[in-house]
Input
Amino acid sequence: MNLLILTQKIDIKDDVLGFFHAWIKKLAEKYSSILVICLQKGEYYLPENVRVLTLGKEKDRSRIKYISRFYRFIFRERGSYDAVFIHMNPVYAVLGGLAWRLWHKKIFLWFNHPMGSPTARMAVRMADAVFCTSPFAFANQYKKTCLMPAGIDTSVFQKDKKTEKTKGAILYIGRISKIKKIECLIESAKILDEKNMDFTLRIIGSPMLEEDIEYEKKLKTAARELIKKQKVKFSPKIVNSDAPAYFNKSDIVVNLTPTGSFDKTVLEAMACETLVLVSNKSFREILPEEFIFTEDNPKDLADKLCAALKLPGNRKKQHEKKFRKYAVENHSLDKLIGRINDFVF
Output
């Protein structure tokens, strides 16, 4: 069986999409050959049975050229693949769907976004099956949709027995963007400071858009006094494979992603046996109530942080072990690849 994968970016060093490199590497163990068409390529190290073609965003910004290359690639290579797996870019299903159906190529769409669009709806109609991880995702309303494991490489994301957690260390990892609601975390840190709690908050991430740069400036202004006290520190984005080191050093990882997405960062932290605090309702059946705070509520987040930081050592370890067990048994990369193969073969 030969597979065509379409994705936004192939770059092992990308802070957001770097994880997909591991997905392709694992998929390559199951298929005779894999052809990857990406919008943009960076650094990658993939097996010999994987070829990567780029639409060229790393060189130019012409959408006409992207579309021209897309059609040239899928037509020229149509004898090189038997099925199509589209990752988070429904537009490819719209552009290539009719041709793939004509050639009897099955189409599988991974779309985990909470919001839909006319393009997404058309892509779902074109697909033979749709995959997502969150019950609150837009795609989950369709009968052809299947809830999937998140695909965490638990051999990378695991506890490092040589690393000790820094007492009171709170961590945020993710994009610097308004949708991430980081201002809520900073306000919570102010409350902890007023209570004379012993803590440090590290915010790791970088802005991508012009508006996000302004947002980051506002965050740093809001946290100015805590930065002076060395209780808050901002750090630029890191590659996905470096995240386990930070998870292993931290007492608690806070995730403020709104309900709808099923943020992999939470599961990666859990796989590293680190406590997590989330507002996302997708985790209500997974995490104890004490680790879920009310969205957009700095006081509730501060209260949950206080309680988590004060947990007795034995209870803390019990939760950490349970978190790891859940991540491995339900969201490992091996589990995900097995589920994908069940559909493709």
